[in-house]
Amino acid sequence: MLAENFNYIFRNKMSKHTLLVGIVPRKNLWPKIQKEKWYHVPVEKAPAKTELVEYLGFYFPDVFDKEMRYQVKYYAKVKKVTVVKRLELFPEESEDESANKDYFKFHLEEIKQLPQSIPNLGRREIIHILTSYEKLFSAKEINDLYDISPLEEIMYWEMKKRKIFTERQFYVKVGEKEFYCLDFGIFCKRGKIDLECDGAIYHTSPEALAKDKKRNNELTNYGWCVLRFSGEEINKSINDCFKIIERNIESLGGILSVS
Predict the structure, then answer these.
(1) Nearest 10 degrees: Cα torsion 149, 121, 216, 49
(2) What pLDDT score was predicted for residue 259?
(3) What does the pLDDT read at residue 206?
(4) What stretch(es) of the chain map to CATH 3.40.960.10?
(5) Is the domain defined by 17-145 classed in CATH 3.10.590?
(6) What was the pLDDT predicted at 201?
(7) CA distance 146 to 156
(8) In sequence order, what are the residues at sequence separation of 6 or more whose Cβ sits closer than 8 angstroms to the Cβ of residue 191?
C-alpha cells in the first residue's frame, strides 16, 4: 500500500502547477504590489527553478495587523518572470547596498483572495516555499504546503493522521554560522525531535554518511533528539517507525500545544 502511495504522490507531483509562496516583508510594500502587480525575490536567495513559477501566494509575517499576519491570504497568476536590478524596482532607494543586485520580478495578473486563508499555526519564521497551485487550495495550515519528496509526504500525512504536530523544513542555527534544515521538527514539553527521511540517493555514500554524522552530533549537542528513517523503513514498516517516534515523544512529555 505504501509503495502505491509513493508512486501516486510522485505521478501527481509531476503534473502540478508550480507556485511560490512569497513573504511580504513590509507593510508599505503590499499596496505597491497590489497597485503595480509585481513581486520580487533576490536571485541569490531564490529557490531553484524560481523562473518557472506559474503562480504566487502571499504570506504576511508579524509586521502586519492581526487580520493579515501569520497567514497566506492572497494569490495571483504569474504572466512572466524577468531579472532586473533592485534599483529598477525601487528607484527611490538608490543608496541601498542591494541596489545593483539581480532580482526576479514576477509580473502578475489579478491578485485574488483565497477562499480560506492558510494559517501559520506555530508562528515560525517562514522562508519562501516552492509548492503547487493545487496544494494552495487544499492546505489547511502552512505545513501542508510543502512539496519536497514522496518520502516526506508519506511521513507527514501519517503524522497528521496520528495528530502529531510538526514543523516541516524547519531551519535551526547551530553555533555562530551553521544552519541546518530539518525535514521535520517536533516540539515536546521537555525537548525537541529532528525527524529525517533518508532517501537512498542522498544518504548512502561515505561522504553523505560522514556529513549526516557530523550534523547529528551538532544537533544533539544543541538539545535535539535526532531520529532517521530510511526509505525502505518508511515504505515497508511505517508502523515500526512510529513506535519509535511516539515512544520518544512520550519520553519528552508529549507534544507542545500550538493553540
Answers:
(1) 40
(2) 64
(3) 73
(4) 150-251
(5) yes
(6) 60
(7) 10
(8) 223, 225, 252, 253
What amino acid is encoded at 245 in this protein? I
Q: Give per-10-residue mean pLDDT for the chain (259 aa).
A: 41 68 96 97 92 96 96 98 95 90 97 97 93 96 93 96 96 87 97 92 70 92 95 95 98 89
* Its pTM surpasses 0.90: no
Phi-psi region of 120 (alpha: psi -120 to 50; beta: other; left: phi over 0): beta
- Residues facing residue 187 across a β-bridge: 192
* Residue reference for cell 525537548: 191
Pairing of strands 71-85, 38-42: unpaired
The predicted pLDDT at position 244 comes to 98
Pinpoint the residues of the chain covered by CATH 3.10.590. Answer: 17-145
CATH architecture label of 150-251: 3-Layer(aba) Sandwich (3.40)
